């Protein structure tokens, strides 16, 4: 573990606590009103930046330097005595810039999001939001994961599941505003929300369900069509249970074939498929079919080709779910062989694992199977002993509709959020196998269809990052979206094409290894001239 001091950027004009910082902070413990409870409030001293050797994502390795702040830990009592409380953390900087930032969660949550780390896509070398003067906060979404239990167990309780769906984030937001009022004597002037994956779903949920609560929102790789994802992920697991399972060597075979077919299409060979949409249409897995009598890692069997085609294909429900959707778009191509590490990686991490799917799922299985099969058992069928191979959606229609209406952030009517003055940025990683980036692309286009393209452009942007996996590996992925949102919300500076960078996780400078344009959908980076490691060598065009 490396520790080094990095000075954070102080806010230009800061507010401070209404009285002595330590006294005001500790006094917050006695200020809450039921059902909100403050368990601890204590002033924290400035901390130094640290870099861990390993973590589930590149950003998770970096613990940024933070200033003096009041750390408030609390919980919100449930209505149902059998439901867990909603736990939260609110961090109140001694020097406040008048803004707040709520962090989203991940997976099935169940861990407290502290708001002390880097927000989604954030560059490693930038001062943390807390160091910039933002109040930051997060929640466990209303349950705590327990070792040895499937992460979906909490969903057997109605209130716990409703908290996970949307209630917890609203309640914690309101509790945080109350704490800011008590600590500083005023409410925040602007409120922001940034979330990735499940947190990206939460971000879109806030724009759709609570359109007056936030001024700027980033939804990165959002698990937007939640019910569809659990079913599509389960289907992709089922098709690899037997002969369809694909070995790590064959994963590389496919990835090499994708790069050979599509890497040069943008004008240069740089190990990134810059236009994966066109590549999905042109790459054919059957080109790798084993010849008669051939077998092994140098080709694919018919069962394996069927498995890949299933992954790429749309999953269809027998009836419409929330907002009229009755399907989930298939996954794309590129990044198949991105190395697995926790929630990072390509096919091996998310789809295939290092062993074929089993029931019950085991840690060696792909995460999508662990999530999907458990979701079917605990969320949709509500039968932990269900044999998932026998599950039929039509036999659980009422529950699917209930879950979809709670969980799916697919409502395209963002007119109230727009009228409030809210700004939304969506960011999709095109080599993402945790969720299909095409689900987010389709949602953004549904907003354009609902409100009009020019009207949508007034308040929303969709960016697509080629070659990047779910958590930021594989290609340039870092961009300061918090500053982009602040500039748009507070100065009216609407963003155009941006730049993403891939940084070495080496403090203190976190040097840039390469960069690319981050293009507004539906444009892609195209090589013009110059070094392939520089964004200036590319432009964005369709």
Indicate the topology.
Blueprint lengths: L1 E3 L16 H7 L8 E9 L4 E3 L10 E2 L5 E8 L9 E8 L5 E5 L31 E5 L18 H27 L5 E7 L1 H12 L6 E5 L5 H13 L9 H15 L13 H7 L19 H11 L2 E2 L10 E2 L18 H6 L14 H14 L16 H11 L7 H6 L2 E7 L7 H15 L1 H5 L2 E6 L15 H11 L6 E6 L8 E9 L3 E4 L10 E4 L1
Parallel strand pairs: 7-8, 7-9, 9-10, 10-13, 13-14
Antiparallel strand pairs: 1-3, 2-5, 3-4, 5-6, 6-8, 11-12, 14-16, 15-16, 17-18
Helix pairs in contact: 2-3, 4-7, 4-9
How would you describe this structure to a colleague?
The chain is of the alpha/beta class and 542 residues long. The protein is built from 14 helices and 18 strands. The protein has helices spanning 21-27, 158-184, 198-209, 226-238, 248-262, 276-282, 302-312, 347-352, 367-380, 397-407, 415-420, 437-451, 453-457, 481-491, and strands at residues 2-4, 36-44, 49-51, 62-63, 69-76, 86-93, 99-103, 135-139, 190-196, 216-220, 315-316, 327-328, 423-429, 460-465, 498-503, 512-520, 524-527, 538-541. The strands form four sheets. An eleven-stranded mixed sheet has the order 2-5-6-8-7-9-10-13-14-16-15, sandwiched between helices. It has a three-stranded antiparallel sheet with strand order 1-3-4, with no helix packed on it. β15 and β16 (512-520) form a beta hairpin. α4 (226-238) crosses α9 (367-380). The protein is globular and about 80 Å long. The two termini are 44 Å apart. The model is unreliable at 1-12 (pLDDT under 50).
